[in-house]
Design goal:
The protein is mostly helical and 130 residues long. The chain has a domain at 30-65. 41% of the residues lie in helices and 0% in strands. It starts with 31 loop residues before the first helix and ends with a helix.
Length: 130
């Protein structure tokens, strides 16, 4: 075998193609036809029921009216999040990890934390132990 590949013969051990053709093999689950039939049956029930179509049309109209009637979004509120915060040199030296650099860093992200106040759980949840 020539290490510089000067020979004109084609080596059978190194074909000029990939081992993988990059097309995923799709194998259907045994119950996929049954599942699709059930979904199509549900879809025909929804399409044939005039109440569902009316409800969807009403909901769509309500959403469009809400979008059109709500006040314009004030983007200047977001811009104030980038304002720097003045902090003392002593506090930056003692506890730099607790010092915010901008207003955006002190915004309260989660106002209502479920795990923070366990006493606000309902009595039913306390009985069930959840």
């Amino acid at each position: 075998m020539d290490p510089w590949n000067n020979s004109k013969s084609i080596d059978e051990a190194c074909p000029n193609e990939f081992e993988d053709n990059f097309v995923p093999e799709i194998t259907k689950l045994p119950d996929s036809e049954k599942y699709l039939a059930i979904l199509e049956e549900k879809l025909t029930k929804i399409k044939s029921n005039p109440n569902v179509m009316e409800q969807l049309a009403k909901k769509r109209e309500e959403c469009l009216n809400q979008l059109l009637s709500e006040p314009e979004y004030d983007c200047s509120r977001d811009l104030s999040l980038d304002e720097p915060i003045e902090s003392t040199t002593i506090m930056r030296t003692i506890m730099p990890q607790k010092q915010a650099l901008t207003q955006g860093e002190i915004v309260e992200l989660l106002k209502y934390d479920r795990l923070e106040n366990p006493e606000t759980d309902s009595p039913e949840e306390k009985k069930n132990g959840t």
